[in-house]
Amino acid sequence: MNIQNHKVLLLILAGTLSACGSGTSQSATQSNSTSRAFGGLALTGASSDPCSGVPAWNSTTAYATAGTLVVQNGVKYVNNWWTQGNNPTTSNGGAGSGQPWAKQAVCGTPTPSPTPSPSPSPTPTPTPVPTPTPSPSPAPTPAPDDYPLYNTSGQNNYTGGTIVRGTDGNLYQCLSNIVAPWCNSTAAWAYAPGTGSAWN
User: Fold this and answer.
1) Which side of the chain, N or C, has fewer Cβ within a 10 Å radius?
2) Dihedral sign, CA of 165, 170, 175, 178?
3) What ranges do the domains of the chain cover?
4) Which residues contact 133 (CB under 8 A, 6 or more apart)?
5) Distance between CA atoms of 174 and 161, rounded to whole angstroms?
């Protein structure tokens, strides 16, 4: 009886598997219609490009682990050891070549090299424009009418720097407080402006 039970069980399983097979057939039909919809290309979800998902080589990146993949100028490379700044295009070779990179595959579409961002040029510091030194403007020469006429009587109180108009019509200045007593002298014949040495 046990053998008969096993046979029955096997028949039931065979029928179930047969029913599942018809589902696979329908799925295959759907797959075929999908392939026809895309020009006969079967879409598997994975790219056929061997460089898909591989990052572009960067000269500033340190590739510390051997076996790291990069793409440069449409070619996939693998590093043999730690490297940085060695361009895979010019630094590649087979085993024993001493090169840090080995060529692995040609990509379907070349990956452009990253364009380095330009370094900003420093802005020059403006040179300050020197402030011109003002030249002293000469003191205007006063008109003779603006100054008193020299008093020849000696009854004056002239101090150093006092300006008077002499009897000849010219202007004279008492030289200093040291000579001021002579500027006030009654001896006009010896100390008057234009005559003596107390006036300039």
Assistant:
1) N
2) negative
3) 46-114, 144-191
4) none
5) 5
Q: What is the dihedral of CA 181, 182, 184, 189, to 10 degrees?
A: 160
For the domain covering 46-114, report its CATH number: 2.10.10
Helix (H) or strand (E) run with residue 104 in it: strand 101-106
Q: What is the 3-state secondary structure (H, E, C) of 56-86?
A: ECCCCCCECCCCCEEEECCEEEEECCCECCC
Which carries the bigger pLDDT value, residue 32 or residue 141?
A: 141
Q: Lowest-confidence range among 115-119, 154-158, 169-173?
A: 154-158
Three-state SS for 101?
A: strand
- Of the candidates 133, 175, 184, the one whose C-alpha atom is nearest the C-alpha of residue 157 is 184
CA distance 91 to 58: 14
Query: Hey, which residues does 165 pair with through a beta bridge?
Result: 149, 171
Residue 181: what residue type?
P
